[in-house]
Inverse folding.
């Protein structure tokens, strides 16, 4: 879910129409990200109480993730990539912080809590995933630097096939066997190719896409909710004994990531709005990708941390955004 907000000059009717469209899209994105945790929580409950309804759905998870990433690609514009060139230092800092803090925190938390091999690998895999699909919307709600948020999220997603598999092998390999080569292929198929396809559609059918933009956050939210339901259903028997430990791991992982991301921005002298963007780009993860990879390469139980993260990081992100927005005023 992306806000896709760009500054438009006020040059008359065309500008008014563009601004109106951007406002409608931003309003839809805000509603989606606000209701998203409730939707995902409901999906998780359904998967838990009626696992048979979603049995056999594991094979569909990569395709569902492809839908989410296609929606992300459709909301991208060439301006997103120009933003990287305008502030390469800030984007590089966000990228390095994201792929150092979150994987490292995942490894430390797995060790500190003495998680089982499956859960430990799942927590680490969440940390090795790229930025979350709702991070820039939450940055917007927090009155942060949306342009920087979009740039970091874009780059972290594009480089994921090269970064996520080796990091997972390095940090989770002590718990479970990791086929990094196969993981690269899966990320290319379920993340990079759908994003590029969405970007291409945006370029060749811009008018049609603009009409559909307000619906895309809801489509992404519903699709991720289905992924969570499938993941929870696959490990329903183990959730009762592991749920509290997984929740603790996720809360620590996300909370420390948000704090370290904000701190990195402040220490680098990026300013308050950019530091807020850094916080959400580091602390919010593409948990849908983590769930898909965990299901395909480990087990449904290993995907449980990603399912819990899907709910929690949107709750914590929305709360943090509300607090920061009020503080900003």
């Amino acid at each position: 879910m992306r806000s896709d907000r760009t500054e438009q000059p006020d040059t008359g009717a065309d500008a008014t129409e563009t601004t109106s469209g951007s406002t409608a899209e931003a309003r839809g994105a805000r509603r989606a990200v606000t209701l998203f945790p409730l939707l995902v929580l409901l999906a998780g409950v359904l998967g838990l109480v009626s696992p048979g309804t979603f049995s056999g759905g594991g094979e569909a998870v990569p395709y569902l993730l492809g839908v989410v990433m296609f929606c992300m690609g459709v909301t991208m514009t060439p301006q997103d990539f120009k933003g990287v060139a305008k502030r390469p230092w800030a984007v590089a800092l966000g990228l390095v912080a994201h792929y150092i803090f979150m994987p490292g925190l995942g490894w430390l938390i797995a060790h500190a809590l003495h998680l089982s091999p499956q859960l430990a690998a799942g927590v680490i895999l969440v940390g090795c995933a790229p930025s979350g699909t709702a991070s820039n919307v939450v940055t917007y709600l927090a009155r942060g630097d949306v342009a920087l948020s979009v740039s970091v999220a874009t780059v972290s997603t594009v480089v994921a096939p090269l970064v996520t598999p080796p990091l997972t092998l390095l940090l989770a390999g002590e718990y479970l066997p990791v086929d990094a080569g196969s993981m690269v292929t899966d990320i290319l198929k379920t993340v990079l190719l759908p994003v590029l396809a969405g970007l291409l559609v945006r370029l060749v059918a811009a008018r049609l896409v603009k009409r559909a933009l307000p619906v895309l956050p809801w489509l992404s939210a519903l699709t991720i909710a289905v992924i969570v339901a499938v993941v929870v259903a696959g490990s329903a028997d183990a959730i009762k004994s592991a749920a509290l430990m997984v929740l603790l791991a996720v809360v620590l992982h996300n909370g420390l990531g948000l704090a370290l991301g904000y701190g990195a921005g402040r220490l680098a002298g990026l300013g308050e709005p950019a530091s807020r963007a850094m916080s959400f780009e580091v602390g919010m993860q593409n948990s849908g990708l983590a769930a898909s990879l965990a299901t395909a390469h480990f087990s449904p139980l290993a995907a449980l941390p990603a399912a819990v993260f899907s709910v929690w990081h949107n709750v914590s992100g929305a709360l943090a955004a509300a607090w920061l927005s009020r503080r900003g005023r």
